[in-house]
Amino acid sequence: MTFGSKVTVIEMMDRIVPAMDAEVSKNLRLILERKGMTILTDTKLQEIIEEDGKLRIKVEGKDDIIASKALLSIGRVPDLEGIGEVEFELDRGRIKVNEYMETSVPGIYAPGDINGTKMLAHAAFRMGEVAAENALKGNHAVAKLNLTPAAIYTLPEVAAVGLTEEQAREKYDVAIGKFNFAANGRAIASDAAQGFVKVIADKKYGEILGVHIIGPAAAELINEASSIIEMEITVEEMLKTIHGHPTYSEVMYEAFADVLGMAIHSPKKK
């Protein structure tokens, strides 16, 4: 697409990036389609056939797609070949571990993709640290994998940490704050004024439940949100901080302020 290619995305689920917040997913699709990408959701891939130097991609209920290249992205599975004759308790082909990263065999730890808990490199790194510490000093360290930030390197980038709005509403009375990059000076100057930061908080205590970003440097900005949630900083406490100007991170601050209806650069909530 960016390099002059025609791109078609085939997604079996009812929306793209289905693990992300629904509002982010909807906005990303809108942006990508405006750029010329074709997106097919609720669509099952049936077969890929090589013919005459091209690929014929058969999808359920639609015309065949003729393409030069096809990229399949359907997840990963743990490789258990290296475990030898040791018998571990498994869960759907993954080595089952407890919160200390210890397997069903005492004294043997299995951090990373092999346990299937959170298949991200940075999560695996943290799991490895926890496993090593517990192996040396006894079980005491825990990896809070529910606070693992995740990013998708599309243009614009998408990133998230914590609960989506749908997940949060199942357990909490929530307040939502949102601020658009279209009102951010650096984003405008960088010709990257698309997307927003969305903050989900608990109304009662101001606890931050999740942060979702679509826009420039989302993969970088989400780490601030991850730290804020880990340190249990409330919305009110967050608003005591100062963010540099002009920076993309000002959008994060304004989104937190919007939770309380205090975003100076947004219209007042009705």
Automatic annotation (TrEMBL):
It comes from the Bacteria. GO terms for molecular function: dihydrolipoyl dehydrogenase (NADH) activity; flavin adenine dinucleotide binding. Residues 148-255 form the Pyridine nucleotide-disulphide oxidoreductase dimerisation domain. Keywords: FAD, Flavoprotein, NAD, Oxidoreductase. Pfam families: Pyr_redox_2, Pyr_redox_dim. Residues 3-128 form the FAD/NAD(P)-binding domain. InterPro entries: Class-I_Pyr_Nuc-Dis_Oxidored, FAD/NAD-bd_sf, FAD/NAD-binding_dom, FAD/NAD-linked_Rdtase_dimer_sf, Pyr_nucl-diS_OxRdtase_dimer. GO terms for biological process: 2-oxoglutarate metabolic process. Its cofactor is FAD. PANTHER family: DIHYDROLIPOYL DEHYDROGENASE, DISULFIDE OXIDOREDUCTASE. Belongs to the class-I pyridine nucleotide-disulfide oxidoreductase family. This is Acetoin dehydrogenase complex, E3 component,dihydrolipoamide dehydrogenase.
